[in-house]
Design a protein that fits this description.
The complex is a heterodimer of chains A (about 160) and B (about 210). Chain A has about 160 residues and is α+β, with helices and mostly antiparallel strands. Classes of the chains: A alpha+beta (about 160), B alpha+beta (about 210).
């Protein structure tokens, strides 16, 4: 079993019985796409909702929309069609209230909205999510069980 | 394809040296300000300048799940931007004892306000240095503070930084302020937003011209 740590703006893959982990999500969102039967999963730690138009140097793992497309392709190359995949997401907190004053929506919220929409457009079922609020989260995905564990500083643990 | 204008990767060695030097001057002022505040001597480590990718970033510095205080300090005037400071909880507790001697128990709001004030004073010292070198008017606004996982605070800071830019690398300055006994008071991580980085560069340019 490997512990696979996913950094900010990074995508990593894992096979059963690996665990995919990302620490300290603020307004960022952890997106997991997995194929339950085979125990194959990909996790992205995305920072921003959408790629800037015309920006060709982008790292797809940084944006919710491009990260989902990239992970769909990665899993597709292993023979898993989008319809056979499921998704779980966590994050998108608004920790610094007032930081985004003047903007219509907080960046965490926009990350979550874009992730949901891109999943829907890709035909991937969003099975569970733990998003919003004002607390940071750490997320661990167990490819053996398909469960996502979400921790905060308040010590409450959620299992999705 | 051109890199985003503020990408730290486009900086030359001379510019990096100058930024480091401005960081040292700023941190020195911050240390002096803190020393006056608590009425005791403070030692400062030489600021370390780091440029790294977003993915590798937070783990370079801290234990990501440890609690910390993150303070965001907006400023206005001739330029608008913000500085972000991070105080790991352990050092913040020592700092709190010096800031609020004899007051037990310390309420959460009293502690928060003491830490905010400290961050404000330190950032003010930094701003004063930048303002003096660039001849620009820079006015600090009230700080916004949170207590959460270290990693989550950095994550949020980076997302805010990434808004409106395409950069995949960040530049940071970090330094420690210690008591004479060696006990750590604050580990300060300064992540300049694009405006603040351009300000640092402008100051760096002035500093080079003056030589």
């Amino acid at each position: 079993m490997n512990l696979v740590t996913v950094g900010i703006a990074e995508i990593r893959m894992g096979e059963r019985p690996d665990r995919l982990i990302t620490y300290g999500l603020g307004s960022c969102v952890a997106i997991v796409l997995f194929h339950d039967h085979s125990g194959t999963a990909a996790m992205a730690h995305v920072m921003l909702p959408m790629a800037f138009e015309g920006d060709e140097t982008i790292n797809p793992a940084k944006y919710a929309d491009t990260a989902i497309l990239r992970m769909t392709n990665m899993l597709g190359r292993k023979g898993f069609a989008p319809g056979s995949l499921a998704a779980k997401i966590a994050g998108g907190a608004d920790m610094f209230a007032g930081l985004s004053r003047g903007k219509s929506r907080h960046i965490g919220e926009r990350n979550v909205l874009t992730a949901r929409k891109t999943l829907r457009n890709s035909g991937i079922a969003l099975e569970a999510e733990d998003t919003g609020g004002n607390l940071g989260r750490s997320v661990e995905f167990d490819t053996s069980t398909g469960r996502m564990t979400v921790r905060t500083l308040r010590k409450d643990v959620k299992v999705l | 394809m051109a890199r985003p204008p503020y990408s730290p990767l486009s900086l030359g060695p001379g510019e990096l040296d100058a930024i480091r030097e401005i960081g040292t001057i700023g941190a020195g002022h911050a240390a002096t300000a803190l020393s006056r505040l608590i009425g005791a001597g403070i030692d400062m480590t030489v600021p370390r300048l780091t440029i790294c990718s977003l993915a590798g970033f937070p783990a370079v510095f801290f234990s990501l799940e440890d609690p910390a205080f993150g303070v965001m300090l907006p400023y206005g005037g001739d330029l608008e931007g913000h500085f972000l400071l991070l105080f790991p909880e352990k050092g913040a507790r020592s700092l709190e004892k010096l800031l609020l001697p004899g007051r037990r128990p310390v309420t959460e709001s009293l502690r928060d306000s003491a830490l905010k004030e400290t961050a404000s004073i330190m950032a003010g010292a930094f701003l004063t240095v930048l303002s003096r070198i660039t001849s620009r008017i820079l006015l600090p606004s009230p700080p916004i503070m949170v207590r959460d996982m270290t990693g989550a605070i950095i994550d949020e800071m980076l997302a805010e930084l990434g808004t409106g830019t395409g950069a995949d690398e960040v530049l940071t300055l970090d330094f420690s302020l210690n008591q004479r006994s060696g006990e750590n008071l604050a580990r300060t991580l300064l992540i300049p937003d694009p405006t603040s980085l351009s300000l640092l560069l402008e100051a760096a340019g002035r500093l080079q011209v003056q030589r």
